[in-house]
Amino acid sequence: MSTADTLQGFKRDGRVVIVGASLAGLRAAEALRDGRFTGKLTMIGDELGEPYDRPPLSKQVLTGWVPADGTTLPRRRDIDAEWLLGVPADGLDLANNHVRLADGRTVPFDRMLISTGVRARPWPVEAEAALDGVFVVRTREDAAGLQRAVAAGPSRVLIIGAGFTGSEIASVCRERDIPVTVAELAPSPLVGGLGAMIGEIAADMQRAHGVDLRCGVKVTQLEGDAQGRVRRAHFSDGSTVDADVVVVALGGIRNTEWLRDSGLAVGVWGVACDAGCRAFDLNGLVTDDIFVAGDVARSPNPMYEYRFISLEHWANAVEQAEIAAHNMVSAQANRWPHLSIPTFWSIQFGVNIKSVGVPTYADEVVVTQGSVADHRFVAAYGYQGRVTAAVSFNNAKWLDHYRQLIERAAPFPPPCPTPDQPLDAKPVPVDFPGPTLLAQGATVVVTGHDPGERRVTAMRQHR
């Protein structure tokens, strides 16, 4: 049978399993059906209910504008799938092409997509994390519970972590005139994602809106009362703050534990795959039946020297899922690479923050246009003399211009495209924090290789 016949047989009668029934998983399933895959499609997810959108959870849901159960993702088409929800995947048998579920069942496949995403990093002390009034924000249930707590008018909200999610929640609380304390171990908010200069601007913005921002300190203990409700937090500098709502916003953990003994190249930054979304095994060999998409994927990008990059971006999850689905049902010569430039947005304290490119892949940053004092500007990022990213505050209309600069590796610093270039504009070091803080605050991470970490044990098979 020819390769073309084999592919047509797979498209007609094959079995595809998608592990991770959220945004990337749903969009991949729709793309498979659009690509004329008529075989059996199985969706596996650890949450009950239909796939839903996560960005609104720290924005529209928290304000009460959209109910938590109103975030269900729209269906572009019927996918005719078997849904196995409420039970997580527990293992992967590559030798026999089976996914093991936590309830003991096994699900066979011919090709599989891993789109298990990330989960919220919990407060590390289990008893303190269980106190009434302590929240993380990742699921609909998380957001609904926090929305009710904020709507009740707490005396103070403590937010642990000043990344994008923590800062957005702080913004919502201040809009409601709720006293807010934000604790951040790094020198400033958003520093893990955008660097020190933007972090200082974000810090000034938060304090101008009445946030009690405490940087360079660590929360060492959450204290509860006799009824098991959180009442006080202790800090590493010896100070305390009374709060009856605590939000733990320390970033995410990629859901890869179920793949630990699978033989795939899996680590804390996700599942390594090539630009065509095919997973690597431990020996660096590409697999042809296992694909990866979304927040859990870690793939090389030619525009960034083929470095492996992990992204927690909505648009990336959609684009990567559609490319993975296309490549599943296409011959080698017709497969597509995932080469998109990341984009991201956040609204906080009345400012629309948007980025294009990879700010964490930079050694310098400069304000190229606008006014920092007015919180209306664009900053360009550069690495070794070329443009790699840009961030705008209330000035997003120019980001497409910077996208074009990134695509053609334009020299850094770039000329200002408008007459409003600051007179004192000059590049400064980006100054990102160390890997531990970066993992908690960045939405784009250039993972590379850490020579201090042994990731793989080589095993030679004799034949």
TrEMBL record:
InterPro entries found in the cross-reference section: FAD-oxidoreductase/Apoptosis, FAD/NAD-bd_sf, FAD/NAD-binding_dom, FAD/NAD-linked_Rdtase_dimer_sf, Reductase_C
Keywords: FAD, Flavoprotein, Oxidoreductase
Record domain Reductase C-terminal: where: 344-414
Cofactor(s) the record lists: FAD
Residues of the FAD/NAD(P)-binding domain: 15-321
Keyword Lyase attached: no
Keyword Flavoprotein: yes
Protein name: FAD/NAD(P)-binding oxidoreductase
Source organism (scientific name): Streptomyces mirabilis
